[in-house]
Amino acid sequence: MTRSMIISNRKKRNGRRNFVVGLKVDTVGKTIKQLRTFLRDRLRKQIIAPIDLDGWKILEEEVDAVYLSMDEINSIYKLDLSDTPHLINYRNDFVLGCLTGLRFSDFSELMKDDVRKDMLYKKQNKSEQWVVIPLRDEALEILRTRFDSNVAALTNGDFNKHIKTIARMAGITELIKFSHKKHGKDVIETKPKYEWITSHTCRRSFCTK
Question: CA–CA separation, 197 vs 169, rounded Å?
Answer without folding.
Answer: 13
